Amino acid sequence: MANPRIIDIDLDETTILWRNADIEQERRIAIFDLIEDNLFRPVRSFAGGHEGPYRLRLSVNDGRLVLDIADEAGGPLETLVLGLGRFRRSIREYFAICESYYQAIRKATATEIETIDMARRGVHNEAAEMLLERLDGKVETDFATARRLFTLICVLHIRG
Fold this sequence. Notes:
By secondary structure, the protein is an alpha+beta fold.
């Protein structure tokens, strides 16, 4: 029976140079939510008879996002490499607005926090749409999964 979903996700910790408590919380939530509810169907692997579930490892190598996809037992299925050039602006914007959001939570009014959060969601949604475009023809996924994956891509870009 097909089960096209991610059951485990791993981030290349050597890629992540630094993260604060807020970013660590974002990472934990994104991974938890992703494992709980996602759609992930690698086109080649699925067509080759591997119908899930999948294990996914994310890393960044030479400015490219590397998605190592494995079967349930951890056997390698395929590796996808996506250029990250189109995401750089979104990643910078997302970090900037998240920093504003974290500061606002500590001292701003509810209205100010809501305004910043709406902007943060907007940047996040645009980046998720872009990720869906980049995965088209490689991985079938849904918007919620793409949003969570973008959060994890951002975590991989923290440089301190």
